[in-house]
Each structure stands twice: as C-alpha cells, then as structure tokens.
Amino acid sequence: MGEIKFIFCEGGAESYDRKVLEKILRELPSYPIVPLIIPAGGKTNLPNFMLGFLHRGSGLQKKNNENAIGFRDRDFDAPVPETPQLVIGNNPKIYFSHRATIENYLLSPETLFRFVQEKEIAIGISSIEDAGMVFQEEAEKLKYYSAARHSLGAVRQRINLGTTWTEGSGILPESLSQEDCLREAFRIVENVQNMATSMPGGARALIGVSNEDDILTSGRFEQVFNFFCGKFDEQFFGSKQFMVWFHAKDLQKAISQREEFLACQFSFKNYYKFVLQNFDYGQFPDLVQFRLILEA
Question: What is the mean pLDDT of residues 11-17?
C-alpha cells in the first residue's frame, strides 16, 4: 500500500471519529510525523470525497491513491465479524469499525461509573455492576428495534432502504414492541417492493431485483427479523454483546430517558469529553489492527 499520508473519516473537525484516530496516531513510532486526518462529513459521501480530494489539481498537487485510506462506522452496512476485527466493504481502501459506531468504543459501564464518581453525580450508580445493570436494562428494551435495524441492513439491496423509520439514530420510536418494530420495518421494505414491481425489467435489475422471486415478502422479511430476535437472547445480553451490535446513539438515548438521568440533566457531551481524556484504544483489537496498517 505504501506510506499512508491521509486518513479520511466521518464527521467534522471535532468529531469523535477524529479524536479517536488522533489517539491512535500518537502511538505511531513516527509521531509527530503522522498521516493527516481529513474529515469527510457523512459516511455515504466518503468514497467520492476521497476520490475528489486525491484527484483535484495536477502535477505536484495531485495525491497518490495508494497513500490514503478511510475509516468509518460499520453501522448496519456490513455483517458483524465473529472476532473483533476491521471490516472491508466494497471499497478495499475504506475500513469499517468492528463495533457499530465510534461511540460504541466510548460508551461503557466502566467509564460511566468512573465519570459519575469523579463528578459526584447522584444517579444511583455506586459500582460498575450498577452501571452495567443500567446498560443491560436499556439494551433489553431495544431488542426488537435493533433486530429490525439489523434486518433492514441485511436485506437492503442496491438502493438505500435505511435502517430506521424514525428521523435517525438516537431518535427512538414511540413503541419498541416486537409487533410494532416488525410492522414498521416491513413497511419500509414494502415501499421498495411496490416500486420494484412497477419497474421494467432493466430498471429492476439496477437495484438487484432480477425476477419476482427476488422480491421480499413479509414472510421472508419476518424470517430475517426472527433470526436477529433469536440471536439477541439472554446470553447475548449477559455477555454485553449489545455493546458491539446495538447502535450507541440508540443506547445513549434510551439511557438518557431514565428518570434519574433526566432529573440531573445528565450530559453525554461531558461524559464523552471525560472518556476521551484517557481513552485506551489498545483494548480494542480492530483499532490496534488499524494502527498496524498505518505502521506497515
């Protein structure tokens, strides 16, 4: 690949993505001579942003494609690896995080406990076990919503189905019940299904629907949904796997709605600032893997 000179990431100059990457760069043997981090905004535009940046100008101004890589949240755009590792999508130069989002690396019972103890915030958390129970209780409430989001991610074709029917991650639906989450998720699939069946054959092929058998039915989608519901079982929650699979913004929102968090106007912005001060990326194998790629 050659010496990496540019790392493209999601968000802006003050994004958590950039701050975590800066932690990794400080550990490179070449520090302070390290790759330049280029915030690219949204994940969807990342490949085009990289291409435009690297090919603008000519001569000395033109950048070498081999000297740049991207790093982005996995979200629901790729399967979750069985072991913690980076995920490579369609573009081999863009690496997806193992955990769903960058906030998934910052949000944890251990850091929440340390934060409330140091800041003397009275929300009934006097041990890591107390904090862990808060996480588990709220994660269990998100079971069916998260199953729906993973199902939509798994069945999406060449057009973007989206993975939620709300305004976005961190905006939870009014109902988190199994029945309502399945109904709302399939409503999204149904809209694409109706559009696909009305298209001529050539146009349908462009979105990955080559014949009638490719079109999802409610029964087929429910099978996918039930698979994820079954995966998110008691062992899943007991082993805290939701910290990898569930979207951190959803989990953050659910926790923030607890009565004790509302009463003290708990600030997750201050919490993340606290966590980043002493963030240890070394406890996450995929982030260590990313550092090794930069060192190669």
Answer: 92
